[in-house]
């Protein structure tokens, strides 16, 4: 099976696969491997898969604690695994089969958590949320906001937080909320409506080249992020991609994405390295990206804690 490539695999195989080894990545595609290592260690060496992350460009404001989870698949975390915070975000696949009873059980669990604000989107497993008649039968607990290609404003102290959520992922298999894979007009149009003032973007799937195991994210979403540049982007879907990453909207990131998309090879890698070094001395706008998948492993046997971000 070629690494960094999702062609020819079923969706479950992609979502549940283990991350390839370092040697496999190096031998399969040296420029992409080196680009990923440079990007990780020069931009993201301090960001572990779990724990608390602080955004460093909003320190003049009171911090807003955002607790991030995704892909719980009928797993209900206890209070030690979901820290208290101002906003709880669930980035989809709240169930395994998407039945009304499964969704309702998850909503009841979310409603019992102590967070004042809870924002939920669907994922490709959450079938009943794609059927209006079944969705209307659900009881939504107080404090739970469901977003489907929609935005909301949450008020935390003196802060106003603008959140946009969308459940859609590129077509693969028979799940719900899917669109034809990029490059297609529908993929581009899907992400053209992200509001410019979005503070937190919640999508089920990752953008291409960011916490997506190489080839499984959406290129149209990646390109749309250059316009939106949210402070925080929360997603899941690719379970083994779970991690926190800081994206800096500069030339180095452009070259990184070109190399990862195979649109440039060694020349792109050298340019990326040069601009990464220069970027050490230049400030710019950043986004925190969080793949918050809770379930992991080949059979979802691993259960990971929530990831906390302080904005």
From TrEMBL:
Q: Which domain of life is it from?
A: Eukaryota
Q: Name one Pfam family in it.
A: Metallophos
In alphabetical order, the GO MF annotations are: hydrolase activity
Q: Which CDD domains match?
A: MPP_239FB (cd07379)
Entry's transmembrane regions: none
Entries under SUPFAM superfamilies matching the protein: Metallo-dependent phosphatases
Q: Where is the Calcineurin-like phosphoesterase domain?
A: 65-240
What is the name attached to this protein's record?
Calcineurin-like phosphoesterase domain-containing protein
Task: Say which species the protein is native to.
Answer: Botryobasidium botryosum (strain FD-172 SS1)
Upper taxonomic lineage = Eukaryota, Fungi, Dikarya, Basidiomycota, Agaricomycotina
